[in-house]
Amino acid sequence: MIEEPPLLTIARNIQRPSPAEVERFRAIPTSFLCDAMGGDGALDWRIKPICMTSLLGVALTCQCGPADVLPLKTAVAMSQPGDVIVVATGGFTATAVVGDLLLGVAKNRGAAGFVTDGLVRDRIDVEALQLPVYAMGVTPNSPHSKGPGAIGLPIICGGRAVASGDIIIGDRDGIVVVPRGDIAEVLKNLERVKAAEAKASERVRAGSKNVEDVTPLTPDDRIRWVE
Q1: Are 72 and 85 in contact (CB under 8 A)?
Q2: Considering all CA atoms of the chain, what is the largest pairwise distance in Å, rounded to the nearest integer?
């Protein structure tokens, strides 16, 4: 016999980075962050801004089953100022996972944004909230509150592992996750990335027609010319 699972599984203690650590990622392009993490770090490309584009905060994770919103309601009730509520639905697209009312409560509690690999609803009213919301898309279909689900535990959202306490950054290109344990290393790498980007941008603005770094990758003995 299979036992009934608990309606909710909730992490009791969630460790968050300091506000000062989070603030150091302010206004950093997501492309720079991916470069600082070896060219990786972004969620599925289909997760794009529904409204507003600048997003920075700390992940509070939530796992919702298909057509279910009970875990998310609990996550919103647990949220703290500066949290980005990140909801994994397994890519479920038959119903929305949230609408304007619950997102409005999240904003009132100080949430910095919302990210999901599912869908949202009430687009006009969500846009009026002025809360950064990223999702796979929009549908008017509504979910139910039934469970089971989890809050605060590691999830897979948009094909990437996300843990509560990770830093979430969003812009028009998409969403990038900086694992909490990698913050110091990523910040260090960012200095190198920003310096390299600044030099390259300066050359391009000056009119350069050269494509950098091609010759070392294509030595003469590896090229065959044809007529």
Answers
A1: yes
A2: 73
The total of other beta-carbon atoms located within 10 Å of residue 91's CB is: 17
- pLDDT for the residue numbered 216: 64
**3-state DSSP call for residue 179?**
coil
Which residue, among 57, 22, 34, 24, has the nearest Cα to 193 in the 3D structure? 34
- Residue 119 bridge partners (DSSP): 96, 137
Instruction: For residue 156, give every residue at least 6 positions away whose Cβ sits within 8 Å of its Cβ, in sequence order, or none.
Output: 88, 162
What is the pLDDT at residue 5? 80
Point out which residues pair with 167 in neighbouring strands: 58, 178
DSSP string, 24-78: TTTT--HHHHHHHTTS--B--TT-EEEE---EEEEEEEEEE-TTB-HHHHHHHHH
What the chain holds in terms of domains, given with CATH numbers, is: 8-194 (3.50.30.40)
> How far apart are alpha carbons 55 and 52 in whole angstroms?
8
- Residue numbers of the chain with a pLDDT score lower than 50: none
For residue 192, the model assigns a pLDDT of: 94
- pTM here is 0.91
Burial bucket for residue 33 (CB in 10 Å: 0-12, 13-18, 19+): buried
